[in-house]
Specification:
about 300 residues; 6-stranded antiparallel β-sheet
Length: about 300
């Protein structure tokens, strides 16, 4: 948990909540704040299985997963390839598009390119409003909905502060929907109603800023389509364990996949535990199920 990304504080909250749950379940669990000595910490504490509660770059981009693979330690969640693909929004969108999964049209703007004079504003094929966001970042850090040309430069600077690549995509009007997928099965759908209409960092983590409807009040046809797309996205990316797929659903009921999160938040008020609770699974049971899923995979690969 923890680490050095912009999502450090949320990761610490997730890790502490998971740790408490594992202790309540009787596991000999320890916390490790991931730093440059994480491998030494893992060896010193004689860790046998890792519960990854590390959000953001370094934690859900395949980096820590690669280290754990080299060390021969089983871990929760998706593997190296799926983590790396899912974390890079442009790469994930390209993959999903190739498999016929609807994603907002867009492009990538690399830092410095916008000053060459060769970039149309907005980029060719897009109209205002557009969404500008870092290619590999979470918790809506650096994300801006740009509604007019005067906001463009600041939005790019905000995204490039987190990543040299910024994804610029069409803004999809409609409803904010998320589907958690656990071991390949969708959990109840959640609709997110954020004050001001934008599910930003404050809306995610400040109490009272957002209303959540679970199950989401969607028609049967739209709900089925969203569940199918969530599972299909999970499968195409190659996810394992728990993941969460975020959507926008247009007023006409057409869903677009925005991104997939391979290390969903696990505070007691996060979206994955909320959906699991609606399915009859309390927080401790969810935590243990994610842990045991990793253990089964390790045994299936010939681990101890």
């Amino acid at each position: 948990m923890g680490g050095r990304s912009a999502e450090r504080e949320i990761s610490l909250r997730t890790g502490q909540a998971v740790h408490r749950a594992l202790l309540r379940r009787g596991y000999e669990a320890v916390t490790i704040d991931a730093d440059a000595s994480v491998a030494e910490h893992l060896r010193a504490k004689k860790v046998e299985l890792v519960f990854v509660a590390l959000h953001g770059p370094g934690g859900e981009d395949g980096t820590i997963q690669g280290l754990l693979e080299v060390m021969g330690l089983p871990y929760t969640g998706s593997g190296v390839r799926a983590s790396a693909v899912a974390m890079h929004k442009a790469m994930a969108k390209t993959l999903l598009n190739c498999h016929g999964i609807p994603v907002p049209p867009g492009t990538v703007v690399t830092a410095g390119r916008s000053r060459t004079g060769g970039l149309a504003v907005p980029p060719v094929g897009l109209r205002w409003p557009v969404v500008v966001k870092p290619a590999a970042q979470g918790s809506t850090f650096g994300v801006t909905v740009v509604r007019r040309r005067s906001e463009w430069a600041a939005a790019l600077r905000g995204a490039h502060a987190y990543d040299p690549e910024a994804v610029v995509e069409a803004y999809i009007p409609g409803r904010e929907i998320t589907v958690s997928v656990l071991d390949g099965k969708p959990l109840p759908i959640i609709e997110i109603l954020a004050m001001g209409g934008f599910y930003d960092y404050a809306a995610k983590y400040e109490k009272g800023r957002t209303q959540y409807l679970c199950p989401a009040p969607l028609s049967a046809a739209v709900a089925k389509a969203v569940r199918v797309l969530a599972v299909r996205t999970y499968e195409v990316v190659g996810c394992q364990g728990a993941a969460r797929v975020d959507f926008r659903v247009t007023p006409r009921g057409r869903p677009y996949v925005l991104e997939i999160n391979t290390v969903p938040g696990m505070t007691e008020t996060s979206l994955l535990p909320m959906a699991a609770a609606k399915a009859g699974m309390d927080y401790d049971s969810l935590t243990e199920r994610i842990l045991l899923s990793a253990l089964r995979r390790a045994r299936g690969r010939g681990g101890s």
